[in-house]
Amino acid sequence: MLLLLGGFLVLMLLGVPVAIAMASSSLLYILVSGVTPDVTLAQRMIAGVESFPLLAVPFFILAGNLMNIAGVTGRIYKFAVALVGWMRGGLGHVNIIGSVIFSGMSGTAIADAAGLGTIEIKAMKDHGYTTEFSVGVTAASATLGPIIPPSLPFVIYGMMANVSIGALFLGGVIPGIVMTLLMMATVTYFAHRNNWGSDTPFSWPQLGSAGLEITIVLAFPLAIWLMTLAGMSTNMAVVIGLGTLLAIDWYFDFSAVMALMAPVILIGGMTLGWFTPTEAAVAAVIWSLFLGLVRYRTMTLKTVAKATFDTIETTASVLFIVTAASIFAWLLTVSQAAQLLSDWMLSITHNKWVFLALANVLILFVGCFIDTTAAITILVPILLPIVLKLGIDPIHFGLIMTLNLMIGLLHPPLGMVLFVLARVAKLSVERTTVAILPWLVPLLIALIAITYIPELTLWLPKYMGLSK
C-alpha cells in the first residue's frame, strides 16, 4: 500500500499529470511486488473503458461544445435577463439562472464556465460590477452543471458504483434547486450590502414573454399526457407536440424555448423509457445539431468540425484518466489497501452521520488535488463498501461525492474552473481564488443540507420508481 499510494503522491508532488502518476505508480507496484504479470496493466486499463455508460462521455461533451457554437448561450443569457434582470443585483441572478438552463444541456462545470462565463463576466463588468464579484458568482453557478441533469460525473459514478444513472440524474434535480436558491440569496445579500439596483428596467412585456416561454415548455409534457389519455400513441403525440412547438417558436421567434426544451426531452425521454442515459447523450447531440443547423442556422461545417476535434481532445484526456484510474483502483482492491482504509474508517465510527462528515472532508480534500473523474474512480472502491455497510443509499452518496468534487474545482492547485475563469477574466489565480471564497458559504450550506437531509436527493427517484 505504501509503495502504491506513496509512489502516486510523490509523482503528483513532482507535477506529473494525474493519469501518468496513477499509471506509473501502478506499473511500479506490479514490477516490484510481482502480484500480477505486467501485461495486466494494459488489460485492466483497456477493461476500464469497455463500458456502455462511458459512451455518454464524448456525446455530452460534444453537446456542450455544439451548444456553445450554436449561439444557444447568447439566447439563454437574453432569456435570463428578461426573467430576473430587473431584480436588485440583476446580472448576478441572470448568471445563476443562465447556468441552471445551460446545465440541462452540457453536464459539465467547465463547459458552463467557458461558455456562459465569457458572456456573463463581460456583461457584468460593463454594468459596473467588480471583476471579483463577477468571477465569484460565475464560478459558484458553474458547479450546478454536474448537479442538475444530465451530468458527466453521475455517469462515471453510476458505472463505478453499479447504480442507476437515471436515478442519479433525477436525484440531482431538487439539490440543484436548493443550490440555485442559496446562490440567489447570496446575490441578494451582496446587492443590499452594496446598495445595487437592477440592471434592466422592470417590464411587464419582457417578464410576460419569459413567463410565456416557461409556460410553453412546461405545457409540452402536459399536452403529451393529455393526447395519450385520448388514445393517441406516445410516439405520435410527441411528434405532433414537437411539430406544434417548432411552428410556434418559428412564428414568434422566442429567445430560448427550444433551448429550454433540451432538459425536458432528455429527462422525459429517460423517464418514459425511450432511451437510456447513454442514449440521452446522443439525443442531446442531435438536438444541438438541430438547433444550430436548422432552427438558428448559426452553425457551419467548419464550426461543427472544430467542436468535434475539441471533443476528441477532451474525451481522450478524460478516458485516459479513467483507464489509469481503473488499474490504480483495481490494485488498491487487490493489495487490500482499500480494505485496510475501509477498516480504518470503520474503526473510527460506525455512525453513518459521523462517517458522512468524515467522507465530506476526505472527498473535498481529494477534489482539490485530483481530477473529478480520477477521484470518483479511486474513491468509489474505497468508500462504497462502507456506504453499503452503514445503510447509506448509494444514490444519496453519489450526490454528496459529486458536489464535494465540484467545490474542489474552485480551488488550487488543480481547480479547472478556477483556471478557466482566471483566463476568461484576465485575473491572477490568486485574485480569482480570493474572489471565489465568499461563494463557498452557500455551497457548503447546500452540501450540509444534501448530506443530512437524504430526501432532498431520494424523494424524486423514489416517486418516479427508479429507487427503493
From TrEMBL:
Keyword Flavoprotein: no
Record's keyword annotation contains Membrane: yes
Family matches, as Pfam families: DctM (PF06808)
Record's subcellular location: Cell inner membrane
InterPro entries documented for this protein: DctM, TRAP_DctM
Record keywords: Cell inner membrane, Cell membrane, Membrane, Transmembrane, Transmembrane helix, Transport
Membrane spanning stretches: 45-67, 133-156, 168-190, 210-229, 236-252, 280-298, 318-341, 353-383, 395-422, 434-453
Predominant cellular place of this UniProt entry's protein: membrane
GO MF terms, alphabetically ordered: transmembrane transporter activity
Domain TRAP C4-dicarboxylate transport system permease DctM subunit: 5-248, 255-456
Domain of life from the UniProt record: Bacteria
Entry GO CC: plasma membrane
Membrane topology: Multi-pass membrane protein
Function: Part of the tripartite ATP-independent periplasmic (TRAP) transport system.
Official protein name in the record: TRAP transporter large permease
Lineage of the species this protein comes from: Bacteria, Pseudomonadati, Pseudomonadota, Alphaproteobacteria, Hyphomicrobiales
